[in-house]
Amino acid sequence: MVTGSNKTELVAKTFRGLEEVLAKEIEQLGGENIRIATRAVMFRGDAEMICRVNYHLRTALRVLMHLHSFTACDEHQLYRGAMEYDWSEHLTNETTFAVDGVLNSPHFNHSQYIALKVKDAIADQFRKKTGSRPSVDKTNPDIRFNLHISGDKCSILLDSSGESLHKRGYRTAGHSAPLNEVLAAGLVKLSGWNCNSNFVDPMCGSGTIVLEAALMAHNIPPGIYRKHFAFEKWPGFDLSLVEKIHNEDYPEKEFRYKIAGSDISPEAVSIARNNAKSAFLHRKVEFRISSFENYIPPEGGGVLIVNPPYGERLKQGDPVLFHSVIGDTLKKRYEGYEAWVFSGNTDAVKKVGLKPSKKIVLFNGPIESHFHKFSIYRGTKKRN
Ligand SMILES: C[S@@+](CC[C@H](N)C(=O)[O-])C[C@H]1O[C@@H](n2cnc3c(N)ncnc32)[C@H](O)[C@@H]1O
Which residues lie closer than 8 Å to 215 by C-beta, 6 or more apart? Predict the structure, then answer.
């Protein structure tokens, strides 16, 4: 168990394409020995760091603590490897647990099966020592282990977050295609917006990008809304650290510019307003019902991020062709803005028709997505 100032190996998971951004956040929070992997950042930290990163990281989906590594090429070696570790450090007969498996190996076929083998090893070790065993609860366990197998390298990690950290706790109702909060925060960070100008999302849907920008602008930690983190149920974890992190003083930043969202759908705007209220941000952001074509952005320029519809059919026509309207509107109304378009459709984003000054590829889960920057000056020309 991680106690006091003992440092341990930690892994923060994220979307592919956000690793650098996440590594920077971890560095700012004091993480040590930071190393970047695909969809993950490894670092070292103590128990206080585990609280701190769960509470503050905007671009992490979850944070895991490394427990045990070994090599295995078949299920017997996997079982034996899992048996080598003393699981009573993390479990008692009264705690419930679950094991999730992630697999990238020619030696094993099914992630559920390998997870089952490790679950058996843990249960058998308890039964041998105590005559009984902790129960499995797949949906809401007290303790969740993650098993990763890459080739013959097996690692077992302990999940410190519980529910994915994108579930900030401010979302009141679903909208048809809300962006994941971690991805939205990542887009704001990748855009380079330094909280020193206006910020706009004129197709805001449920308001995710706008709300994540507002949290950053006012220096509000995303963990403030969360009721629980998994590490709070770890046996022996110093719960006074949670109080300490929660009560630390985060001076709210003064913000002199506008953070605004608009959407053509009254229902979406109503959801965005409710989400803003539940995040106590309703006095800090403004949501309006308006088409993108007619919306007048705040004067003085700034940063715009838009995540246009691309999968579904639009009332006004083809979603790919609609990107040409986006290009026209940016040129007409957004002089002085740095505009970023996030789309999972390569053909669509090309139709914007302006020359991107930056192109970033990232993955929204399995979907390869494009985040293109267009700087809009007086006289910016469309390409076609
Ligand atoms: C992919 S969703 C955006 C989701 C949003 N990022 C969120 O997190 O909820 C695209 C949004 O564009 C809006 N939309 C479609 N056509 C529009 C238009 N012409 N003007 C303004 N909004 C539009 C839709 O109503 C929808 O809410």
Answer: 58, 185, 221, 222, 279, 281
Contact 27, 18 (CB under 8 A): no
Which residue's entry shows tokens 């809300």?
Answer: 178
Q: Taking 80 as the threshold, does the pLDDT of residue 306 lie above it?
A: yes
Q: Is the dihedral of CA 322, 327, 330, 333 positive or negative?
A: negative
Our answer on whether the CB atom of 319 is closer than 6 Å to any ligand 1 atom is no
| Helix (H) and strand (E) counts in the chain | 10, 14
Contact criterion met (CB below 8 Å) for 211 and 279: yes
Percent of the chain with pLDDT strictly greater than 90: 84
The model carries a pTM of 0.94
In this structure, the residue with its CA closest to atom 5 of ligand 1 is 205
Please report the atom of ligand 1 found closest to the CA of residue 208.
Answer: 8
Q: Is 213 in the pocket of ligand 1 (CB under 6 A)?
A: no
Q: Is the CB of 175 under 6 A from ligand 1?
A: yes
DSSP 8-state code for residue 220:
-
> Long-range CB contacts (< 8 A, 24+ apart) of 130-133?
130/93, 132/93, 133/93
Q: CATH top-level class for 8-159?
A: alpha beta
The answer on pLDDT for 211 being more than 50 is yes
Chain segment 243-285, per-residue pLDDT in tens: 999 888 777 778 899 999 999 999 999 999 999 999 999 999 9
Q: What mean pLDDT comes out for the span 25-31? A: 97
Indicate the CATH number for domain 181-218+253-375: 3.40.50.150
Q: Which of 263, 318, 328, 342 to mutate to test the pocket of ligand 1 (most atoms within 8 A of CB)?
A: 263
Residues of the chain with CATH 3.40.50.150: 181-218+253-375
Which uninterrupted H or E stretch holds 26? helix 19-28
Which residue, by CA, sits nearest to atom 16 of ligand 1?
264
Handedness of CA 26, 27, 29, 32 (dihedral sign): positive
96 C-beta closer than 6 A to ligand 1:
no
Please tell me the distance from the alpha carbon of residue 343 to that of residue 246, in angstroms, as a whole number: 36
The boundaries of every CATH 3.30.2130.30 domain in the chain are: 8-159
Within 8 A by CB and 6+ apart from 227, the residues are: 169
Quick check: 208 and 172 in contact, CB under 8 A?
no
